[in-house]
Amino acid sequence: MTPPGDGDAADTLLNGRYRLGEVIGRGGMAVVFRAWDESLDRPVAVKVFHAGLVDIARQEAEQGVLASLDHHNLVSLLDAGVTRSPAGPERFIVMALIPGQDLEERLAAGPLAAQHIAEVGYDMAEALDYVHAHGVVHRDIKPSNILLVDYGNHSDRARAKLTDFGIALSEEHERLTADGMTTGTAAYLSPEQARGGDVGPASDVYALGLVLLQAFTRRREFPGSLVESAIARLSRDPVIPEPLPAHWRHALSAMTAQDPADRPTGAALVELLRDVVIAETRAGGAAGEGRTTPAGETADSPVPESFDTLPEEALERVTAMAARLLGAPIALVNVRDEDRVWSHTHLDEGVDDSARDLSFNWGSTLPSVPVVIGDGLTHPEMQTSPLVTGPLGVRSYVSVPLTRHDGQTIGTLSVLDVVPRDVSEAELANLADLAALAVTQLELRQESLRSTSDALPLTPPTPPEVSGAR
To answer: What residues pair up with 25 in beta bridges, in sequence order?
Structure first.
């Protein structure tokens, strides 16, 4: 039966067996439909390749690669065939329908707990170990090709499957692109792919490292066009956020090494990410967090609606970096959580310990832009503050808002100095970047205390005014 266009696919019966439903994916090569297998009475996903738009060899290659692979972390191929359309013959493949969403959709919805990021990474490491051992290089590892499985059993363990082998290289299949031609998604290409060089298992490992990094930052490390993205990765290494724990910094740095020979592959990659899962599990057990459903609780147990504690180690790094950035002795994070104000303060040696009791009165107008007070003695609202007139003798104050991914402001990252000072635009921009890292850590902490995968909205705070020490 001739398959219709995307808009009227519902109830089309493909090859007398697969009844097409809604479109669940679309790309330059094909359209993916949710469908029903009327022979076996089960849901499936049917990928119909566009007629005449892609070399038939590429379509046959994906079919051949998928048919040769069978692993619990890969999407299974169930069937394949050819149908007719007004534009000519169209190949299709039938795959298992994975309940859930892809990683790109999940990250757009909110932060993912570090424990779950580790589990997704481990599943992908096992998948890559398997496909690489079978002579296959995926070449297009990216968040939208990683499917998060929802088995509907309230499992507290994240499960992931790798899909879309459309540009994979296999030892048993002819290379589908000319030598030197770059394939894959620009933001996740390895340096050797960007150069048009040889592509091997280490290229997939590099891309997975960028994906896991993005799971923390929720932004692409190398955005832009193919040329812009390629130049960026050839000129620098990915920036691994300093507040991440040592086991994550080590793993991400190893996976994104410039030299492919320095990246872990095969069993070494599996072992590396297994160690990360173990480290996250231990950290979660020690802190009473790390899983979506905490140990000892059922899915119906009460869910904390606030932070248990702040991620102290991460925020100490952020505030210490903020102080170093501006060459100032005091930096602090303040965040409003439900019914209380949390704070973490970094002090250089020699600063009066009373600075640890710094607090801000929350008034009615927290600015959503940076605040810079160059000299408190000349500022009408600050010159009488105990912060300035008291033993600390603060003269300058700089703050940037802590802003969630949904645009809500939840607090401030502030730097205070005992001398008047000016702040450059570059310094403000760097401080804002640190604030973004702090928010990521706060949202990850809150995510780990939830019993669902959706991010819990924070109550927008009433903005603060600078005040003195308690």
So the answer is: 32
At residue 47, the 3 state secondary structure works out as strand
d(CA 301, CA 233): 45
Catalytic residues: 140
469, 359 in Cβ contact below 8 A?
yes
For 260, the token pair is 């492919």
CA distances from 464 to 327, 334, 404, 432, 442 (A): 24, 9, 17, 18, 19
DSSP 41: T
Output the average pLDDT for the chain.
77
Distance CA 444, CA 189 (A): 27
Encoding tokens for residue 82? 């050819």
SS3 64: helix
**Residue the block writes with tokens 């998948």:** 127
The DSSP secondary-structure symbol of 74 reads B
What average pLDDT score do residues 226-250 get? Answer: 85
Select from 432, 417, 427, 437 the least CA-distant residue to 347. Answer: 417
Is the distance from CB of 303 to CB of 426 less than 8 angstroms? no
Q: Sorting pLDDT into bands at 50, 70 and 90, what band is 333? A: confident
- Model confidence, pTM: 0.59
C-alpha–C-alpha distance, residues 273 and 283, integer Å: 15
pLDDT digits (tens, 9 = 90+) for 144-168: 999 998 876 666 788 999 988 765 5
Q: Do the beta carbons of residue 442 and residue 402 sit within 8 Å?
A: yes
Of the listed ranges 54-58, 104-108, 211-215, 422-426, the least confidently predicted one is: 54-58
- Alpha carbons within 13 angstroms on the beta-carbon side of residue 145 total 23
Nearest to residue 444, comparing CAs of 254, 245, 197, 265?
245
* Token pair belonging to 153: 């059993």
Residues 6+ apart with CB under 8 A from 391: 352, 354
Q: Which residues contact 429 (CB under 8 A, 6 or more apart)?
A: none
**Helical ranges in 20-76 per DSSP H:** 56-67
